[in-house]
């Protein structure tokens, strides 16, 4: 996510992630059957597993992209190809978040016939996903459950801070 400053934080819990993945799966049901699911690693792996389970897909593939937020630092590169997916025909591509769209654009070029779905979308990347559950502002930093840990927060009366981290 680069080193830019986010002004808002949205914390996604495991429960919320599971609910949102099931909501996305529900949106995708009319497009069934899929030949398989391609997860964009690493963030798309858990949502893709949940969605594949809900849609009865057994074929799972991954695509791994290394990218930079500031494009002048270098072009995004696919470091692991989704060979089982061919040109994407009949496949569903899943990611956790479409942000700047740099990764999504590269994946779409590689899998032009796939359906692209994300849990969350920011305005700059929104046009690059076919389906998403929730739009978040460009300056929101989404904290996923695999990046966070439960932390004790003292009560306000004991000096606890009122952290605005609820999604």
TrEMBL record:
Binding site for Mg(2+): 96
Record protein name field: Xanthine-guanine phosphoribosyltransferase
Organism: Acetobacter peroxydans
Essential cofactor(s): Mg(2+)
Protein residues bound to GMP: 99-103, 141-142
Phylogenetic lineage: Bacteria, Pseudomonadati, Pseudomonadota, Alphaproteobacteria, Acetobacterales
Enzyme Commission code(s) on record: 2.4.2.22
Binding annotation for xanthine: 99, 142
Residue span(s) of domain Phosphoribosyltransferase: 14-150
Sites where the protein binds 5-phospho-alpha-D-ribose 1-diphosphate: 42-43, 95-103
Gene (UniProt): gpt
Annotated positions binding guanine: 99, 142
Principal subcellular localization: membrane
Protein family membership: Belongs to the purine/pyrimidine phosphoribosyltransferase family. XGPT subfamily.
A GO molecular-function annotation: guanine phosphoribosyltransferase activity
Cellular compartments per GO CC: plasma membrane
Subcellular location, record wording: Cell membrane
Keywords: Cell membrane, Glycosyltransferase, Magnesium, Membrane, Metal-binding, Purine salvage, Transferase
Reaction(s) this enzyme catalyzes, per UniProt: IMP + diphosphate = hypoxanthine + 5-phospho-alpha-D-ribose 1-diphosphate; XMP + diphosphate = xanthine + 5-phospho-alpha-D-ribose 1-diphosphate; GMP + diphosphate = guanine + 5-phospho-alpha-D-ribose 1-diphosphate
HAMAP family: XGPRT (MF_01903)
Function: Purine salvage pathway enzyme that catalyzes the transfer of the ribosyl-5-phosphate group from 5-phospho-alpha-D-ribose 1-diphosphate (PRPP) to the N9 position of the 6-oxopurines guanine and xanthine to form the corresponding ribonucleotides GMP (guanosine 5'-monophosphate) and XMP (xanthosine 5'-monophosphate), with the release of PPi. To a lesser extent, also acts on hypoxanthine.
Claim: Magnesium is one of the keywords in the record: yes
Keyword Magnesium on entry: yes
Pathway involvement of the protein, from the record: Purine metabolism; GMP biosynthesis via salvage pathway; GMP from guanine: step 1/1; Purine metabolism; XMP biosynthesis via salvage pathway; XMP from xanthine: step 1/1
